[in-house]
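Message: I would value a second opinion on how I read folds in token form. Give me a protein, with the fold worked out from its sequence. Write it directly below this note and I will take it from there.
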Amino acid sequence: MKLPLWAGVALMLFSVNSSTAVEPPGSITEADAVRLFLDESPQARLISLRAEAAGAAASIGIQVANPSVTYQIEDAFGVRDEFLTFQQELPITGRRSLLHDRAAAVSAATGLLGRRDLQIATRSLRIAFYDVLYRASVIEILGRGEHELGETVEMLRRREHEGEGSGYDVLRAEQETGELQVEIGRAEAALAAARAGFGSFFAESLAMGSAVIEGDFALAESPWTGEEAVAIALVERTDLMALEQEFRQQELDLQAARRQRFPEPILSAGWKRVEALGQSDTGFMASLMVPLPVFQHGKYAAVRARAAASQVDLQKEILAREIRAEVQATLARARAARQTAGRFDGPVEQRAGELRRIAQLAFDEGENGILELLDAVRTSLRMELQALAARHEARREQINLDHVMGREVRP
């Protein structure tokens, strides 16, 4: 049975949509997100490629010259000469070996800078992960407040209907509910933006923006003193390692430039055949040419390499000072944020709920009015949101501390 044209087109579109449909991801933890990012991200794959390209570029032109073969024939006045000559430069000074080591240092420095870029991206990913978790938690807290306010509004409406309450109380509670719903709308928009930012770290086909984020804001006390944290950073920071490799590169450049004072001879050897007056003879020929380093002896290359090495050495010192200041400042912020979050330790939700219950009881017994009840609701919500924001800020500072110390996250 042959299908009509419209049915075939519809079937084709359905099959395409079915094949390209993205299965929503399940729950994901911070470790899962980091592992997936490091496994599939283009940033991770770029590191080795850039290092390889940099090393190859630095190796161009430093190989030993290719050997050459020359065939020459001369025929004049009845004399015929034929030459077959092989010529090769002899790399006896070791300069090219130094330049190959320099190319390896260039490759290593590029790879280390690539790792630092990946660390920056990983830090941003971790912050985005906890931003989604924070925004979702805000909506959860506001949602509980909306639910309780909704129950209060229903209670006030029943009282008004029974003649035991006032219309003002109903209108005031409805206004409070409307304002809270506006806050929820803003929080939902912020969550959507946070999910989009988190999803941008992954391939679109993974649909990570709709993943269920699993985690908490629990924090452990930092085990390092300021000097210990600085010492770790000075060892672990890959950008400082990259400068060390660049310094090594300039030192190798300097050594190679000094080797230019020593010539590398060129050896020529071959076969010669002479034919004259009907007779012929063969023999060999050899020569050794030694260039004289009179005009080009690496003087200015050595000056440049020496100056470049001094510049890199100063850059290392500058970066080490910046790292020290950055680590100490970030460690201080992390401790302050942890102390602030610690002030909210304990059953914050329980205390907030207790505040609302006391206010509700006082309202039911006529001791307080609707304004006091709504103020208790706002205060309890603000208490929960402040505790959540403090824990979120402490987590962000901990992530920043890991970053400035150069601690790589490898789940």
